[in-house]
Amino acid sequence: xxxxxxxxxxxxxxxxxxxxxxxxxxxxxxxxxxxxxxxxxxxxxxxxxxxxxxxxxxxxxxxxxxxxxxxxxxxxxxxxxxxxxxxxxxxxxxxxxxxxxxxxxxxxxxxxxxxxxxxxxxxxxxxxxxxxxxxxxxxxxxxxxxxxxxxxxxxxxxxxxxxxxxxxxxxxxxxxxxxxxxxxxxxxxxxxxxxxxxxxxxxxxxxxxxxxxxxxxxxxxxxxxxxxxxxxxxxxxxxxxxxxxxxxxxxxxxxxxxxxxxxxxxxxxxxxxxxxxxxxxxxxxxxxxxxxxxxxxxxxxxxxxxxxxxxxxxxxxxxxxxxxxxxxxxxxxxxxxxxxxxxxxxxxxxxxxxxxxxxxxxxxxxxxxxxxxxxxxxxxxxxxxxxxxxxxxxxxxxxxxxxxxxxxxxxxxxxxxxxxxxxxxxxxxxxxxxxxxxxxxxxxxxxxxxxxxxxxxxxxxxxxxxxxxxxxxxxxxxxxxxxxxxxxxxxxxxxxxxxxxxxxxxxxxxxxxxxxxxxxxxxxxxxxxxxxxxxxxxxxxxxxxxxxxxxxxxxxxxxxxxxxxxxxxxxxxxxxxxxxxxxxxxxxxxxxxxxxxxxxxxxxxxxxxxxxxxxxxxxxxxxxxxxxxxxxxxxxxxxxxxxxxxxxxxxxxxxxxxxxxxxxxxxxxxxxxxxxxxxxxxxxxxxxxxxxxxxxxxxxxxxxxxxxxxxxxxxxxxxxxxxxxxxxxxxxxxxxxxxxxxxxxxxxxxxxxxxxxxxxxxxxxxxxxxxxxxxxxxxxxxxxxxxxxxxxxxxxxxxxxxxxxxxxxxxxxxxxx
Length: 817
Hints:
Elements: H1 4-12, H2 19-50, H3 59-72, H4 83-134, H5 144-174, E1 191-192, H6 201-207, H7 228-249, H8 254-272, H9 278-300, E2 303-307, E3 315-319, H10 320-333, E4 337-342, H11 348-372, H12 378-384, E5 392-395, E6 397-401, E7 409-413, H13 422-440, H14 448-461, E8 470-476, H15 485-499, E9 504-505, E10 508-509, H16 510-521, E11 525-528, E12 531-535, H17 544-557, H18 559-567, E13 572-575, E14 578-583, H19 587-600, E15 606-611, E16 613-616, E17 619-624, E18 627-632, H20 651-669, H21 673-689, H22 694-706, H23 719-748, E19 752-758, H24 764-779, E20 791-797, H25 802-806, E21 814-816
Helix pairs in contact: 1-5, 2-4, 2-5, 4-21, 7-8, 8-24, 13-16, 13-17, 15-16, 15-17, 20-21
């Protein structure tokens, strides 16, 4: 490799004749060095997040906090082993972690600005040099030799800084374990609510990956499968079963279906048959042993591990007995559940069996009556009838709500597959939801971006936002348990009567729908330990029909409020359990109106927020003298900061989709470019601190900006350019919503086909592409499976997430009776 001294000697020959050109070159070298240094400094800060290595200067936060605590506490010490002190320590560490992350976000924002300025100066200088060279400006033309020397010198500068900072990464970040031992790092997701655990540091690090995390290659090292062919067969099994069911449903010729399935199977074997390298096998074994060790520790110390109820990728670790006590208290104190049977050793099997099978017979008898009356076609009745050998009794489980300061609350979670009411619930949802969506379309927000688009149209396009306009949000706290079953059924009937042109919805009469609703609502039962309960309000939150019924009920409930808001030229909409509207009269009048609604409908529990600025759908919205201002709401004190959402299936793919969606959300929901850039940095750091590589993050960020050929927008703070960039994404979302509506229509018509297979490693994208090509060629002329008539979605799944391995109930979620 050439040295700097060799290049300097070569350049000296040109000093006499090309002095000005050499000065230009020296200036370029300086600017390249400044740009490279700024680039590597920025990169090092991000690597510090990934490797959990805070800047040493941030340790002063720990010292100041500790000193402050010592001055205010005289009877206890940091090293005290009491539960109260341990709780304080946990809270203290979380605060320090968030503070360090917030400061790092500020440093990275400054480093990005510095890098952009340095890079822009260098690019401008280089562009000016080439422009003067091409325009033959006197004493500024470059010879071929000098150009070659400049290019080599610039490349050497880049290589020099690359090697310097690679050494820093290796020494200071990756391998400096000793200095990290007693330091508090960055944000962690695990919530520890116990002092009696024996988890090691490595085990805690694994749990900090969250319930979505999938320990790699667990199928490949399974003791039940010894050969590679057995592993491939296991991964392919779900897809094979789904294809067989699909071909049978559509009456595909046996020979044709076997030929198609064989071709797909061969593709799968060819692409996924590679054996697992030894290094990856070692990692898989290591994490398997960690999981087993954690499981033993949970059992030994009587602990429980549950994911949090906010659907974020975080675990709660607490005492099992306390958890079960709170669960029993929840069921006893709630007016949404009723105890119908207590099991004991003498009556457990016989009484439960009689009760359960009596309910099955009652439901089937009612369905046969509807068939006899020709209220529903025989084919549908056949699908709805229950087979006692396949119906299961669900076990209630609970997730942990940690949003309340210093108080754990529980949220019920009830699996619904193969239960007494799952078939009727699915049928009712397919019947009611499409019709209800059409009726509620004008007052419904599909998501936060849809809300921002409509609010922008109201405030900016129509210019109906005045300087005195107030914002109001309403949060329904009992969305899933709004009213008694009888009242819910009546309100659904009123909704259908008010909005149907006839007495039937798709040939099903309103009375028949009410009969089916009665079968559904009154037969949701579940078990929690030795007790059997039934719902007195609402239905399982995991069933889509529950959302549909609650949405219809609230649509009827909000009628009075909507009428008055329209009379006052206001803006109104609802997204599930959250309402937003504008108010152009006095706040006292609004308070009186809301109070009258509470009195008229005491069963709907809600709380409100009124003012010129409010939070809605995790967005901050404010009226600044008649100008609308919005941004993503990031409260620095929120517990869920820098935590990914909880996902299932294929986590890496799901987080790729989430990251892009979150960047689009940031662009659409942030009015100002500075807020967008701050949110972008927050999203990048969230992925880095949760173990996703800088390469992964940079790839997706570059793709996001390159989509509209606006990569420079990543560092720009130009509001005018940002407005154009933002509008592009609004237009993109509009087209995406139209595409999703078409997909939903296909699903409503029963022509959306979902297939999946188990995945660990291999060319997933290639297999999916070849699968779609084969499917298209085989069914291009089929009356129901062609691309014009149906849509196929092929996805991947993992079966060994930490949530499955560690956080499931000791009882099976569902048990046949």
